[in-house]
Write a structure and sequence with these properties.
CATH topology of the largest domain: Rossmann fold
CATH architecture of the largest domain: 3-Layer(aba) Sandwich
Strand order of the largest sheet: 3-2-1-4-5-6-7-10-8-9
Distance between the termini: 29 Å
Largest sheet: 10 strands, mixed
CATH superfamily of the largest domain: Tubulin/FtsZ, GTPase domain
Length: 312
Protein backbone atom coordinates (compact mmCIF):
# COMPACT_ATOMS: atom_id res chain seq x y z
CA UNK A 1 0.00 0.00 0.00
CA UNK A 2 1.30 3.45 -0.85
CA UNK A 3 1.43 5.47 2.37
CA UNK A 4 2.74 8.65 0.77
CA UNK A 5 0.39 11.61 0.68
CA UNK A 6 0.54 14.70 -1.49
CA UNK A 7 0.76 18.02 0.31
CA UNK A 8 -1.92 20.09 -1.43
CA UNK A 9 -0.52 23.44 -0.33
CA UNK A 10 2.64 25.07 -1.63
CA UNK A 11 4.94 26.88 0.78
CA UNK A 12 6.89 29.76 -0.76
CA UNK A 13 10.44 29.51 0.60
CA UNK A 14 12.87 32.42 0.31
CA UNK A 15 16.56 32.24 1.18
CA UNK A 16 18.24 35.59 1.77
CA UNK A 17 22.04 35.59 1.68
CA UNK A 18 23.80 38.55 3.29
CA UNK A 19 27.50 39.25 2.75
CA UNK A 20 30.13 36.80 1.53
CA UNK A 21 28.96 33.77 3.49
CA UNK A 22 25.32 34.43 2.68
CA UNK A 23 26.05 34.73 -1.04
CA UNK A 24 28.16 31.54 -0.99
CA UNK A 25 25.29 29.75 0.72
CA UNK A 26 22.62 30.76 -1.79
CA UNK A 27 24.97 29.68 -4.59
CA UNK A 28 25.19 26.30 -2.85
CA UNK A 29 21.40 26.19 -2.48
CA UNK A 30 20.99 26.94 -6.19
CA UNK A 31 23.38 24.12 -7.06
CA UNK A 32 21.74 21.53 -4.79
CA UNK A 33 18.04 22.44 -4.84
CA UNK A 34 15.35 23.08 -7.39
CA UNK A 35 14.05 26.42 -8.62
CA UNK A 36 11.25 26.22 -6.02
CA UNK A 37 13.33 28.38 -3.67
CA UNK A 38 13.43 32.13 -4.24
CA UNK A 39 16.98 33.43 -3.75
CA UNK A 40 17.74 36.96 -2.54
CA UNK A 41 21.25 38.37 -2.28
CA UNK A 42 22.18 41.45 -0.23
CA UNK A 43 25.64 43.03 -0.28
CA UNK A 44 27.54 46.26 -0.78
CA UNK A 45 29.47 44.80 -3.74
CA UNK A 46 27.59 44.97 -7.04
CA UNK A 47 30.11 42.67 -8.76
CA UNK A 48 29.71 39.95 -6.13
CA UNK A 49 25.93 40.15 -6.45
CA UNK A 50 25.98 40.05 -10.24
CA UNK A 51 28.03 36.84 -10.16
CA UNK A 52 25.74 35.16 -7.62
CA UNK A 53 22.75 32.87 -8.17
CA UNK A 54 20.41 35.34 -6.49
CA UNK A 55 17.31 36.06 -8.55
CA UNK A 56 16.74 39.25 -6.56
CA UNK A 57 19.90 41.28 -5.97
CA UNK A 58 19.89 44.20 -3.54
CA UNK A 59 22.98 46.39 -3.35
CA UNK A 60 23.13 48.64 -0.29
CA UNK A 61 25.57 51.29 0.86
CA UNK A 62 27.76 51.32 3.93
CA UNK A 63 25.05 52.93 6.09
CA UNK A 64 22.88 49.83 6.34
CA UNK A 65 19.82 51.09 8.18
CA UNK A 66 19.44 54.16 5.95
CA UNK A 67 20.01 52.07 2.83
CA UNK A 68 17.26 49.64 3.79
CA UNK A 69 14.90 52.47 4.67
CA UNK A 70 15.56 54.03 1.27
CA UNK A 71 14.90 50.71 -0.50
CA UNK A 72 12.00 49.56 1.66
CA UNK A 73 9.77 48.89 -1.35
CA UNK A 74 12.46 46.71 -2.94
CA UNK A 75 12.81 44.68 0.26
CA UNK A 76 9.06 44.32 0.63
CA UNK A 77 8.71 43.11 -2.95
CA UNK A 78 11.64 40.67 -2.59
CA UNK A 79 9.93 38.86 0.29
CA UNK A 80 6.35 39.33 -0.87
CA UNK A 81 4.14 36.26 -0.42
CA UNK A 82 6.96 34.33 1.27
CA UNK A 83 5.85 31.88 3.96
CA UNK A 84 9.25 30.69 5.17
CA UNK A 85 12.29 32.98 5.09
CA UNK A 86 15.87 31.92 5.77
CA UNK A 87 18.28 34.76 6.57
CA UNK A 88 21.89 33.61 6.11
CA UNK A 89 24.86 35.65 7.34
CA UNK A 90 28.20 35.64 9.19
CA UNK A 91 28.15 36.93 12.79
CA UNK A 92 31.70 38.21 12.44
CA UNK A 93 30.97 40.28 9.33
CA UNK A 94 29.78 43.84 9.88
CA UNK A 95 27.12 43.63 7.19
CA UNK A 96 25.66 40.43 8.62
CA UNK A 97 25.64 41.74 12.19
CA UNK A 98 23.83 44.93 11.24
CA UNK A 99 21.34 43.74 8.70
CA UNK A 100 19.85 40.46 10.00
CA UNK A 101 17.69 42.04 12.76
CA UNK A 102 16.64 44.86 10.42
CA UNK A 103 15.58 42.51 7.61
CA UNK A 104 13.86 40.19 10.08
CA UNK A 105 11.83 43.04 11.55
CA UNK A 106 10.89 44.21 8.06
CA UNK A 107 9.64 40.83 6.79
CA UNK A 108 8.15 39.21 9.89
CA UNK A 109 4.40 38.76 9.92
CA UNK A 110 2.11 36.45 11.92
CA UNK A 111 1.85 34.09 8.94
CA UNK A 112 5.60 34.16 8.13
CA UNK A 113 8.26 31.96 9.75
CA UNK A 114 11.73 33.52 9.91
CA UNK A 115 14.79 31.30 10.49
CA UNK A 116 18.35 32.54 10.90
CA UNK A 117 21.36 30.55 9.65
CA UNK A 118 24.44 32.28 11.01
CA UNK A 119 28.08 31.25 10.70
CA UNK A 120 30.01 31.89 13.90
CA UNK A 121 33.53 31.38 15.21
CA UNK A 122 35.31 31.99 18.51
CA UNK A 123 38.58 32.45 16.66
CA UNK A 124 38.13 35.67 14.74
CA UNK A 125 41.04 38.08 14.31
CA UNK A 126 40.78 39.77 17.70
CA UNK A 127 38.81 39.74 20.95
CA UNK A 128 36.76 42.76 19.90
CA UNK A 129 35.33 40.89 16.87
CA UNK A 130 34.65 37.80 19.02
CA UNK A 131 32.66 39.86 21.55
CA UNK A 132 30.89 41.66 18.72
CA UNK A 133 29.97 38.32 17.11
CA UNK A 134 28.54 37.00 20.40
CA UNK A 135 26.48 40.16 20.81
CA UNK A 136 25.29 39.74 17.22
CA UNK A 137 24.09 36.20 17.96
CA UNK A 138 22.13 37.33 21.00
CA UNK A 139 20.52 40.12 18.99
CA UNK A 140 19.73 37.80 16.09
CA UNK A 141 18.14 35.04 18.19
CA UNK A 142 15.70 37.64 19.52
CA UNK A 143 14.88 38.83 16.01
CA UNK A 144 14.05 35.47 14.38
CA UNK A 145 11.82 32.53 15.26
CA UNK A 146 14.72 30.09 15.35
CA UNK A 147 18.48 30.45 14.93
CA UNK A 148 20.87 27.75 13.80
CA UNK A 149 24.54 28.56 14.43
CA UNK A 150 26.99 27.09 11.91
CA UNK A 151 30.69 26.80 12.83
CA UNK A 152 33.28 28.35 10.57
CA UNK A 153 35.18 25.07 10.20
CA UNK A 154 34.24 22.07 8.07
CA UNK A 155 32.20 19.54 10.08
CA UNK A 156 32.25 15.86 9.11
CA UNK A 157 33.04 16.77 5.50
CA UNK A 158 30.41 19.52 5.26
CA UNK A 159 31.52 23.10 4.56
CA UNK A 160 29.50 25.86 6.31
CA UNK A 161 27.67 26.85 3.11
CA UNK A 162 26.76 23.20 2.48
CA UNK A 163 25.23 22.93 5.95
CA UNK A 164 23.14 26.04 5.31
CA UNK A 165 21.98 24.57 1.99
CA UNK A 166 21.14 21.29 3.72
CA UNK A 167 18.87 23.06 6.20
CA UNK A 168 16.97 24.79 3.40
CA UNK A 169 16.61 21.59 1.34
CA UNK A 170 15.28 19.77 4.44
CA UNK A 171 12.39 22.20 4.70
CA UNK A 172 11.81 22.05 0.95
CA UNK A 173 11.39 18.27 1.23
CA UNK A 174 9.28 18.57 4.36
CA UNK A 175 6.84 21.13 3.01
CA UNK A 176 6.76 20.93 -0.79
CA UNK A 177 7.46 17.31 -1.67
CA UNK A 178 5.51 14.07 -1.70
CA UNK A 179 5.78 12.63 1.82
CA UNK A 180 4.25 10.26 4.32
CA UNK A 181 2.54 13.17 6.08
CA UNK A 182 0.07 15.59 4.59
CA UNK A 183 1.90 18.29 6.52
CA UNK A 184 0.59 21.83 6.83
CA UNK A 185 2.87 24.84 7.04
CA UNK A 186 0.95 25.89 10.13
CA UNK A 187 2.20 22.72 11.86
CA UNK A 188 5.80 23.79 11.26
CA UNK A 189 5.06 27.36 12.36
CA UNK A 190 3.49 26.13 15.60
CA UNK A 191 6.51 23.96 16.31
CA UNK A 192 9.22 26.51 15.47
CA UNK A 193 7.73 29.84 16.52
CA UNK A 194 9.94 31.35 19.21
CA UNK A 195 12.04 28.19 19.56
CA UNK A 196 15.37 29.99 20.07
CA UNK A 197 18.64 28.27 19.18
CA UNK A 198 18.47 25.21 16.91
CA UNK A 199 20.99 22.41 16.36
CA UNK A 200 21.23 20.11 13.36
CA UNK A 201 22.44 16.55 12.84
CA UNK A 202 23.12 14.83 9.51
CA UNK A 203 23.40 11.11 8.75
CA UNK A 204 23.65 8.96 5.63
CA UNK A 205 23.77 5.17 5.31
CA UNK A 206 22.82 2.37 2.95
CA UNK A 207 22.23 -1.36 3.08
CA UNK A 208 20.45 -3.31 5.79
CA UNK A 209 19.19 -1.14 8.65
CA UNK A 210 20.22 2.01 6.80
CA UNK A 211 17.47 4.22 8.27
CA UNK A 212 18.43 3.40 11.87
CA UNK A 213 22.16 3.76 11.12
CA UNK A 214 21.62 7.16 9.47
CA UNK A 215 19.43 8.31 12.38
CA UNK A 216 22.16 7.33 14.87
CA UNK A 217 24.76 9.19 12.79
CA UNK A 218 22.53 12.28 12.79
CA UNK A 219 22.04 12.10 16.57
CA UNK A 220 25.82 11.86 17.06
CA UNK A 221 26.62 14.62 14.53
CA UNK A 222 29.04 17.19 16.07
CA UNK A 223 26.58 20.08 15.70
CA UNK A 224 23.89 18.16 17.60
CA UNK A 225 24.93 15.34 19.93
CA UNK A 226 22.72 13.31 22.20
CA UNK A 227 23.23 15.66 25.15
CA UNK A 228 21.51 18.48 23.27
CA UNK A 229 18.87 16.15 21.87
CA UNK A 230 18.07 15.04 25.42
CA UNK A 231 17.19 18.66 26.30
CA UNK A 232 15.17 19.52 23.18
CA UNK A 233 11.53 20.48 23.52
CA UNK A 234 10.87 20.54 19.76
CA UNK A 235 12.33 18.33 17.06
CA UNK A 236 12.06 17.82 13.29
CA UNK A 237 13.31 14.60 11.69
CA UNK A 238 13.39 14.40 7.89
CA UNK A 239 14.18 11.05 6.25
CA UNK A 240 14.99 11.09 2.54
CA UNK A 241 15.27 7.61 1.05
CA UNK A 242 14.68 5.35 -1.91
CA UNK A 243 11.16 4.03 -2.36
CA UNK A 244 12.32 0.57 -1.24
CA UNK A 245 12.50 1.73 2.39
CA UNK A 246 10.05 -0.32 4.44
CA UNK A 247 7.71 1.34 6.91
CA UNK A 248 9.18 -0.79 9.69
CA UNK A 249 12.66 0.64 9.00
CA UNK A 250 11.31 4.17 9.11
CA UNK A 251 9.52 3.26 12.33
CA UNK A 252 12.78 2.09 13.92
CA UNK A 253 14.53 5.34 13.03
CA UNK A 254 11.62 7.40 14.35
CA UNK A 255 11.54 5.52 17.64
CA UNK A 256 15.31 5.94 18.07
CA UNK A 257 15.04 9.71 17.71
CA UNK A 258 11.94 9.83 19.89
CA UNK A 259 13.63 7.85 22.67
CA UNK A 260 16.62 10.21 22.64
CA UNK A 261 14.41 13.21 23.49
CA UNK A 262 12.35 14.06 26.57
CA UNK A 263 8.90 12.48 26.64
CA UNK A 264 7.14 15.83 26.26
CA UNK A 265 9.23 16.88 23.24
CA UNK A 266 7.03 17.89 20.29
CA UNK A 267 7.99 16.05 17.07
CA UNK A 268 7.51 16.19 13.34
CA UNK A 269 8.86 13.08 11.61
CA UNK A 270 8.46 12.57 7.87
CA UNK A 271 9.81 10.55 4.95
CA UNK A 272 10.14 11.73 1.36
CA UNK A 273 11.16 9.27 -1.37
CA UNK A 274 13.97 9.72 -3.87
CA UNK A 275 13.58 8.75 -7.51
CA UNK A 276 16.05 5.88 -7.11
CA UNK A 277 14.56 2.75 -5.58
CA UNK A 278 17.62 1.74 -3.55
CA UNK A 279 19.18 5.15 -2.86
CA UNK A 280 21.11 5.79 0.39
CA UNK A 281 19.00 6.91 3.33
CA UNK A 282 19.66 10.49 4.47
CA UNK A 283 18.43 11.67 7.87
CA UNK A 284 18.35 15.27 9.05
CA UNK A 285 17.44 16.11 12.64
CA UNK A 286 16.81 19.66 13.84
CA UNK A 287 16.47 20.03 17.61
CA UNK A 288 15.12 23.27 19.05
CA UNK A 289 13.93 24.88 22.25
CA UNK A 290 16.68 23.46 24.44
CA UNK A 291 15.70 24.00 28.08
CA UNK A 292 12.80 26.14 26.87
CA UNK A 293 9.16 25.71 27.74
CA UNK A 294 7.25 23.27 25.58
CA UNK A 295 4.75 24.96 23.18
CA UNK A 296 1.60 26.00 25.01
CA UNK A 297 -1.79 24.38 24.55
CA UNK A 298 -3.16 25.18 21.14
CA UNK A 299 0.20 24.77 19.43
CA UNK A 300 0.93 21.78 17.23
CA UNK A 301 1.07 18.39 19.03
CA UNK A 302 3.63 15.70 18.34
CA UNK A 303 3.16 14.92 14.67
CA UNK A 304 4.23 11.31 14.16
CA UNK A 305 2.77 8.82 11.66
CA UNK A 306 0.44 6.24 13.13
CA UNK A 307 2.27 3.12 14.20
CA UNK A 308 5.21 4.72 15.99
CA UNK A 309 4.91 4.20 19.73
CA UNK A 310 5.61 7.22 21.91
CA UNK A 311 5.87 5.15 25.07
CA UNK A 312 9.27 4.57 26.59
Amino acid sequence: MNVYKKNTTFTRITSCGIGNFGIDSIDQIAASSSTDIHLVGIDTDEVLLSQSSAKTQICIGSKTAKAIAAQRNIFTKAFDKSNLIFIIADSGEALGCDIVPIVSKLVRKPEVLCVGLVMHSDQYENQHIIEWAHTSLETTVQAVDSLLVIPEDTISGYAPAEIAAKVVSTFLLLLNRLGILSLLFSDVVALMRGSGYAFMGLGCAEGEGAALKAACQAMDFPLLGRDRLARATRCITQINSGSALLFGEFQQAGIAVRDATPYDCCHIIDVTPKKETHAPVEVTIIAMGLDNKVPVEGDSPRIIPEGISLKK
